[in-house]
Amino acid sequence: MNSENILPLENNEDLNKEKKVLGLNWNIFFTGLTSFLTDTSVKMIYSIMPLFLMSLGASKTELSLIEGIAESTSAFLKAISGWWSDKIGKNKPFMVIGYAVTAIITPIYVFVVSPIQVLFLRFIERTGKGVRTAPRDSLIAGSSSAKSTGKGFGFHKAMDNAGAILGPLLAFGILKAYPENYKRVFLIATIPALLGVATIILFIKETKKSKESLPRKINFKDLPRNFYLFLAIAIIFTLGNSTDALLIVKAEEVGIKVAFIPLVYMIFNSTSVIFAVPMGALSDKIGREKLIIFGYIVYGIVYFGFGNTSAKSTIILLFALYGVYSAATDGVQKALVSDLVDKDKKGTALGLYNAVLGITLLPASLIAGILYDNISSSAAFHFGAIMAISAAALMMLFYKSRKALS
Fold first, then answer.
1. Is 342 helix (H, G, I), strand (E, B) or coil?
2. pLDDT, tens digit (0-9, with 9 covering 90-100), for 154-169
3. Rounded to two decimals, what is the model's pTM?
4. 241 in Cβ contact with 358 (< 8 Å)
5. pLDDT digits over 109-125, tens only?
6. Domains contained in the chain, CATH given
7. Whole-angstrom distance, CA of residue 102 vs CA of residue 262
8. How is the chain split among helix, strand and coil, in percent rounded to 5?
9. DSSP for 170-187?
């Protein structure tokens, strides 16, 4: 989408003159609020899902396979929704549908009695994420000025992870009061999910675009070479970036009590919230590639640590460091994708980026689960560390080549 034509003001007035909330663009603020509410719901469930599945008899391989399939089989929708939103020049309808799917699926977990039912529901819920992700990211990119894209994505990541703090905290409180009552967690998680959908409908404004500004033809071949080079590096990293469920399983194995697992996961999200906006703003100043390289290296250190410790205190420290990696990469990588493509193809590029990485999560999670079950937890985590360091090295070459050309 052409960011010069997607502002919710007539005559394409400067971004600084737009209506703001707490110094942020209106759409960016309320998109962040939507993600905060929805991630509160999602992370209430996600922080207990591995334990819930294991209570139903699932193995670690099955656990990884369920998460991998849920993410990957719906991932192609991210590319389709991104392309479609660019084509018709609208983002809000995709966001409403995508977030509504999550809100509808959440209470249905109450009726689950087998792992295969969890797989089915996770697939549908992640389909909703596939529909909403690229149009939402495109809205954020288009609502940011060229000098504040990293900050915009950083704020969104911070709000997303703020919900990921509150969600596990609420899950902890519920399980502490009602031990192993997972169904009560599912029911209460429905409330913030519904509030997230209401926020989109009531507060997020559809961006105004003239028909002339819409791309007449969108072809993946039109995306630049550097975009595909970066995508290849991100795929290599993602092959070692298996489901976080295995981190939760590892925390339980070292002796952290079930009721406290959501709090441990909350530490990761808390660290990410603290650093997300500063990291995004820093990427606006020093370049995205440097932050991504740093994040990949931190990830390698974290996974190497998970593979070599059985101490509770070390596991907690590694979860905190894992949040630093998340802050340095998640939003910054999307900002880099936005930088690499033309203005009228941001939704398409972000959709393809999210789709390909989502699909890669299936083999990544399957490899890690098989290594965990059949060799050791160390083998699973060391594989992730090796892939991360390899991706960091390739990212350095990518940065040097771009710097030389510029």
1. coil
2. 888 889 878 888 998 8
3. 0.72
4. no
5. 999 999 899 989 988 99
6. 19-212+221-405 (1.20.1250.20)
7. 20
8. 80, 0, 20
9. HHHHHHHHSTT-HHHHHH
